[in-house]
Amino acid sequence: MDKREASAALERLASRLATLSGILDKAEADPAGRALEELAQARLAPDMHPLAWQVSAVCTQALQFLEWSRGHEVPHTVAEVTGWAEARAALAQTRDRLAQALADAGETPEGKRIVLGPLGLYLDLSAPRYLDDWIVPNLYFHLTTAYAILRMQGIALGKADFMAHLMGDLKPIEPELAA
């Protein structure tokens, strides 16, 4: 993955972190005044991690790609984030790190080995597959779960909140094209 592709990947990850931040902003501005610490502990299902952990997992995916793209390894573990303020801080720090990294993105390593220790398995992925088949699906899984938890808790979110990265591209239809 060359410098341009690595930079584009970091921009995409940064954009999705901004989407998550916007979703959390809406929860904080909720007129019903739901307790943020209760929201941080809310789960989509009893066997799933709570919202605060989901935020940490989104950050983890972005940071894993960032560190790997710089030739460093980070464990495939999610930091145990439990409270609202802690989740927001993790998200802000991750967004800052990605913003700083965009200025000096370089070529990435050729590939990535992912060890799934508890399963006794591993994956060897090319750089594009690591991004497209590991990082992005995992990031979207946890981003979607965070969105769903907040929707389930009554936060007024819609598809536009989830697709916020496209809102700046919307343009009005010219009257002659609308017919």
From TrEMBL:
InterPro entries: DinB/YfiT-like, DUF1993. This is DUF1993 domain-containing protein. Signal peptide: none annotated. Pfam families: DUF1993. It comes from Novosphingobium album (ex Liu et al. 2023).
